[in-house]
Amino acid sequence: MSLNSTPSSERVQIGIFGQTNTGKSSIINSITGQNLAVVSDIKGTTTDPVYKSMELLPIGPVTLIDTAGFNDDGTLGKLRIEKTRQILNKTDIAILVTEAQQGLQKIDNELISIFNEKDIKYIVVYNKSDLLAEIPSAKDNEIYVSAKNNKNIYELKELIAKLYSQNTQTIPLVRDLVSKNDCVILVTPIDSAAPKGRIILPQQQVLRDLLDTGAISTVVREHELSEALKNLTKKPKLVITDSQVFEKVSSQTPEDILLTSFSILFARYKGVLNYAVKGVTHFNNLKDNDTILISEGCTHHRQCEDIGTVKLPNWIKNYTGKNLNFEFTSGGSFPEDLKKYNMIVHCGSCMLKDREVLYRYKSADEQNIPITNYGIAIAYMHNILKRSLQVFPDIYKLI
Fold first, then answer.
1. pTM: predicted TM-score of the whole model, two decimal places
2. Distance of CA 117 to CAs 95, 110, 142, 359, Å?
3. I want to staple 236 with a disulfide (CB 3.0 to 4.6 A). Which of 77, 79, 183, 270 is the partner?
C-alpha cells in the first residue's frame, strides 16, 4: 500500500498547536522539508487546519496538522479555536510550539491542561532558540529548536517517534479470531452505493488482516453464499458480513458456524464495542417524538437507498413503532452538547481514528445518551445480535 492510499484512520495524527506567530507553520515546514504552510510575520496567517500526509521514519505514514493560533481573536477567531479543539479529538501526539524567549504562557498551560484531560501525549517545542544566548536544560518532553536554522529538527522527529512507540494500537481487527489455514467467508454486497471497481475500506482491511494471518478467505456477494458453503470442502471458521444483508446471511449460515459483521469487528477495533452493545437496547425505551442522531464518520454522495439517511431510519421506525425525529451528521462534525438527543446511532467508523471514535462514545456516555453503531443496531433489530457476538464471549454476556 502506497503512502497516499494509506487510510487516514491508520495514520498517526500529529497536531501542531500554540499561540499565533510562534512559528507553528515554520516547524511543520521544517519537519516535512517542504513549504507546506504559509509563513508570515502577520499574526493569524493560518486560518483553517492544514493537513499534510507524509512518511516519518521510523513511524511510517503520518498526518501533520497545522492549526490556527489558540489565542485568535474575534468571532472568526472563535470558530478557528473551535476547529482546533475538534482536531484535539483525533490527535495521537500533540506538539505545542512556543517562543523560546517567552517560555510557557497562560494559554500554553491551558493547552497542556487540555492535552492531559484528553490523555494526549505531547511535546513542548521552544522555537526560535537561535535568539537565546544560552540554551536551558529541557525536560524529557521538551526540546529547544530553531526552525529558521533547522536546529534540532532531527531530534524533534526522534522525540515524536519515541512518543509514538508508547502509543500504538493494541486491539486486533480479526487476526486473533482465526488461525492459519482457517476458512473465512466475507460477504460483500455490490449495490448502487458500492464504489465502482473496488470494495469498501472495512472489507479491504479485514481481508488484509486475514491474509497476514494466513487464513483462507473466500469473498462472495450475499446471493452467492449458499453456493459457496456447498462448494467448500472444509467448514468455515467464521462468516463476516456487511450489516445491510445481516438477516439474509444469518438465514443462510448454519448455526454451528460463527457469524459476525464488519461493523462489529470495527467497533471492537476502535475500542467501543462495550458501549455500542450496552446502548443498543435503548431502542426498546424510545417514545414518540424522541430524536435520534445518526452520525457518519465520512462524507459521501448519498444514494436513494443510503443506509444512514434512508434504510436505518426506516428499520428503526418499523422496529419501535414510534413516531421519531432524525438528525444527521457526517465527517468531522459531531455535536459537543448531545442532550437534545435520546439516542445516537454511529457508523462503523472505519474512516475515523480510534481516539476520535472513543471520544464520541465517551462524550455520549458522560451525558447519559445511549449510543450504538450501524451493525449492532441492525443485528439487534433483526434478532441476530446474540449470534453475531458469540465470537466475543465476554461481550456476549452483556446481551
1. 0.77
2. 16, 11, 19, 12
3. 183
